[in-house]
Amino acid sequence: MAEANAFRAAARAVRAAAREGNQLLSGGVSEVRVSDPEIARSLRGILTACGVRLAQDGATGRMARDGATENAENGPDRPGFVFVDDVAAVPDSAIAAAAQARGLPPVYADPAGHSRSSRAADAESRIAWAAAGMPATAALAARLLAASARDRPRLAVSLVLEPKTAAFARTLADSGCEVAVFGAVSETDPSVATALELGGGVAVFAPTAPVDQEDAGRVDAANAAAILDWAPELLIDDGSHLLRLAHTERNGALDALRGAAEETTSGVRPLVEMVAEGSLAIPVIAVNDARTKTGFDNRIGTGQTCVTAILDLLDPPAAAGTDPRQRAVGAAGEAWTVIGYGPVGEGVARFAAAFGARVRVVERDPVRALAAHLDGHAAVSLREGLAGADVVVSATGVWHTLTAEHFAALAPGTAVAVAGGIDDELALGTLRTLGWTERRLGEDRSEWIAPGEASGPIVLADGGGVNYTAGEGNPVEIMDLSFATQLAALIRLISEDLPAGVHTVSAADEAAVARASLAARGAEAEAEVESARPGGAAQHWRTHRYGSRA
Q1: What does the pLDDT look like over 311-335, one tens digit per residue?
Q2: Which of 222, 289, 302, 461 has its CA 20 to 30 A from that of 295?
Q3: pLDDT tens across 178-192, in order?
Q4: Which residue has the higher pLDDT, 535 or 115?
């Protein structure tokens, strides 16, 4: 039991560190200065499983007596996460000194679940923090400024409206675009929308104050229509909702709209159908399909933040205490069922396992099911996956992945969440029709009870994407890659006359984004070798091992 509680305390510390600055674990550097050997060992294990490199004494600077890290102000190996016995013991001077470093300052966390950094809680501070952590976006923005200098295009941005998106919108405005942002009620931080509106330079079509749930649909429809009436020439969309609105009820928007970039898998799918029907009237670049997006945003960023958001809802940060060995709720030993093993499902499974869960995967594609099995997870049927699950995560992006029949098969108390997500991925509307009742257990937690039953499964974040509905969304560093890829797409839309249809991000643009991110991390890729031969073969095809050697 002591060992299990040490692991849970370590997991709570890692979650606190990631949550404090909305930062990426994978690829980061961490320094463990916790005196309890069992907790320290568990910390190192979890961090390593999440892709974090552990600082070595002398390689990244030792901890000075005042709590700061010496000789590591700006190096790529500066610890981004520092784990200590008690963050309250870290002097304010150390926090202030860290804030002067280039990039994102380090975050301090302890096994009791407390954390500290130089990031303040107000919206402007969170926006500034996000901007400091997006060097690849800044690099691509310089190219956009050159491309847009002549005509200052009108650009609409429809993304989850939180600090990173606000920082991105300001970058776009500084890069020569007229910018407007749209945010749905369920996907908008009103304080961020307010800060963006008050800051000027960006038109805001999103709620700047809380909206009652029954009014959300009306408010969203009005804002969606208004941003299209703003007559954007270019659009960055999420879920292709505005794109589809522009091709249906608000088709007058197509008079001005000349190109778009789509951020998500669930948004690209209907666009492909539109192409097949001959209905897509403009060129759309599938940013989602770029290697610099799906391989990082979906698999790593969404995986990390969905798992930590779920655990934060089941073990709220407010429950953090002063005794690091107190009973901490976590994933350790629990049965998690992940439905879907695309990039999002793969990431959720990976991070759930890193936090100690026993992961089962439900996947219709036998190749992906085999991949899940060889990744160390149990590949099972949906019926088996639902039976005995402590947590069920839908990672399909498919309507009604979990039906009323599936909910009826869940044990009372089973937590159900959506990773990524589309509208109605969980059939909650059907549950209401069938007489199920919803009992609110607190913010972002509801128990759904079937007729005649006393208890039922617990739905997190009302069935929305759990990481952006109940948290701040994907980490800053991940959105840096996604936004930089969006910038590459915008530059292409401005510079080239593309035909209507769905287009891919070029390999050259993927490489440019990746190299910008590598450079910011103090890393590099080997120089590419150009081959004059189709397919890149080293020798002419007539040269083979069995040829005459006479």
Answers
A1: 999 998 766 554 443 444 578 889 9
A2: 461
A3: 999 999 999 999 999
A4: 115
Fold match between domain 126-292+474-520 and domain 330-469: yes
What is the CATH code for 330-469? Answer: 3.40.50.720
Q: How many whole angstroms separate alpha carbon 307 and alpha carbon 355? A: 9
Say which CATH topology domain 126-292+474-520 has: Rossmann fold (3.40.50)
Domain boundaries, the chain: 2-119, 126-292+474-520, 330-469
**Helix (H) and strand (E) counts for the chain?**
20, 20
- Alpha-carbon gap, residue 542 to 505, rounded angstroms: 34
Contact 111/9 with Cβ under 8 angstroms?
A: yes
Instruction: Let me know: does 469 contact 183? Beta carbons within 8 Å.
Output: no
Q: Provide the β-strand partners of residue 284.
A: 260, 502
Place of tokens 């942002």: 181
Q: pTM of the full predicted structure?
A: 0.90
Asked whether the predicted pLDDT for residue 1 surpasses 60, the reply is no
At 103 the pLDDT is: 83
Pairing of strands 501-503, 154-158: unpaired
Angstrom CA distances, 529 to 463, 522, 538, stand at 48, 22, 11
Q: Which of 127, 78, 121, 126 is nearest to 102 (CA)?
A: 78
How crowded is residue 89: how many other Cβ atoms within 10 Å of its Cβ? 10
Higher-pLDDT residue of 317, 170: 170
List the beta strands (DSSP E) in 144-264: 154-158, 178-182, 202-205, 234-237, 259-262
